[in-house]
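May I ask for whichever protein you like with its backbone structure tokens?
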Amino acid sequence: MHADLLLVRHGQSEGNESGRFGGHGPTPLTKLGQRQAKGLVKLADEGPIHAIYASDLLRAQETATPLAERLGLPIQSLPGLRERSVGLMTGLTFPEAEVRFPTEYAAMMRRDPGARPPEGETQAECAARAVPVLESLAAQHPGQRIVVVSHAMTLSLLLYHVVGADLSHLPRLFFRTDNCAIHRLRYTLPNIWTIYAPNDQRHLSGMEP
């Protein structure tokens, strides 16, 4: 018995468009992001979807809404799927963050696993809340197909977990996740993960990148 999990990054947000740290901020989708979210409706044509889960942040909720409305399913909000908190950097452009917090910014750009934005989270702290959510959802849905809407860094940390990467040192691997792209995973009991389509963007065909 297996569960299929479609891990989706939110559509383009206003923060993405203007090059700002999103973190736990309330940045909404742009018009392009809204079109990308509507592209997710194509997932309904592939086969049954049994549940939709999303981070409780606005950009993730807006991304999940068109598919939820098409299927008549509720969006089950899970704060554990939030993006990594960047604390006082939230809403700042990258150059602004570099000027205001040069040491912390440099550590983040080096991808130092111990880097902590002022009043924010380390990678390990983000993973510590997100990984149990992924494991729980996989266990809850044997024989089913679910959609999980989250954020770029959080999704990368979840994929580190799936492949067994050690967050105690600087990972050499980064999982690219474009706006509204899908990582298609399969979880097979007792504890086997298969990544069979990373960063899938077929549903966005013809849209402006």
